[in-house]
Prior knowledge:
With 371 residues, the chain is an alpha/beta fold. The protein has 15 helices and 15 strands. The protein has 2 domains: 6-268, tm_1862 like domain (pyruvate-formate lyase- activating enzyme), CATH 3.80.30.20; 312-371, Orthogonal Bundle (Arc Repressor Mutant, subunit A). It has helices spanning 32-46, 48-54, 78-91, 111-119, 134-139, 146-158, 177-190, 207-214, 227-243, 262-268, 297-301, 313-324, 333-340, 342-345, 349-357, and strands spanning 6-12, 62-70, 93-104, 124-130, 163-170, 194-199, 247-250, 253-255, 273-276, 281-284, 289-292, 307-310, 331-332, 361-364, 367-370. Strand 10 and strand 11 form a beta hairpin.
Amino acid sequence: xxxxxxxxxxxxxxxxxxxxxxxxxxxxxxxxxxxxxxxxxxxxxxxxxxxxxxxxxxxxxxxxxxxxxxxxxxxxxxxxxxxxxxxxxxxxxxxxxxxxxxxxxxxxxxxxxxxxxxxxxxxxxxxxxxxxxxxxxxxxxxxxxxxxxxxxxxxxxxxxxxxxxxxxxxxxxxxxxxxxxxxxxxxxxxxxxxxxxxxxxxxxxxxxxxxxxxxxxxxxxxxxxxxxxxxxxxxxxxxxxxxxxxxxxxxxxxxxxxxxxxxxxxxxxxxxxxxxxxxxxxxxxxxxxxxxxxxxxxxxxxxxxxxxxxxxxxxxxxxxxxxxxxxxxxxxxxxxxxxxxxxxxxxxxxxxxxxxxxxxxxxxxxxxxxx
Length: 371
C-alpha cells in the first residue's frame, strides 16, 4: 500500500494582543504558562504513535509539512521554538524538502528571532497583515503598520526565506473600495508568492462579531462595510490577484506557480495530518478517524484526553466533495469512483446534474468545480 506523508500542525494560542475580529482559541496569557504548554506539546509529540494506535488510526512516521499556527507562535522564546522542532524531528522522519511554515505577526521579526527560525529549518513564513491601511489595522487591534510589513518581507528575503504568505481580510472596519484596492496594490507590489484573502466572519466567538450582532458601536463595529460590499471586495481581490499572476487555487488562497500551500492542501484533499496543542485537529487513515484536543488552554495543559470521531464511508465521501470543491481544480469524479466505488456516486449524479443546470457547478471531462 502506498503511504502518504503526514502533515504536522502545532497550535500556539498565545498573542501579544487579542484582535477584535479573532474567533480562534487564542488569547493573551502570562509568559509563565508558556513553558508548561511547551512541555505538554513535547509530551504529546513524543506519544503521538501510541495515541494514534490507541485511536485506531494509522501512524505514518514520514512528514513533509510542518505548520506552527496560532495565535502568534513567535511570542515563544527561541529556545522554546527549538524544543518544539527538535521534538518533531526526534519522533518523525522529516523529508529534506519539507515545507516548514511559521505564522508571524508583522513587526515581531527581530534578528534573533529570525536566526532562530532559520536554525529550526523554517522555510516559509505567513504574515498576518490583514490590511496595508494603518487605520484599518489599528481599528481591529493589530500592533503593526504597513512600513513594518515591508521591512519584515525585506528581512525575510535577505535571510533566504522567499516563500512568504500575506493574509488580508475583506470587510474590516473603515474599509472602503478604494482602501481595499490600495491594500491589494501594495500586496501585489511586494511580489510575495502567496496570499490568503478572507472575508470578515461575523459570529459570537469574537468581540467584534458580538458587537455587530448586538448592533453596537464598540470596536468600530458601526464602520464595518455592508455584506454586499465585503463580497465585492473579495471579487475584486480575485480579479486583481489573478491578473497579477497570483492565481486563485482555493476559495481563500492565491499563489504564483509552485507556491501553493502544501500543508493546507492536505486538509482539502483529505491527506493525513496530526495536530498538537489547544484546539488542534488530526485526521488519520486506514481506517479514517478524526481526533481533537481540548479547546481551552487550562484543560489542555492539565492533560485533557483526545476526542475521537470515526469517519464513516458516507462521511468520507461527503468530505471529499465539500473539501475538494473549495479547490479551483474541483473534484475528480474518476478518482472518487476509484476510492469509494461507482455505486457510491450513483445517488449523487442527479444532484450534480441539477447543480450544473443551476450553473453552480461546471463539468470538465471527469471533474466538477464550482462556477
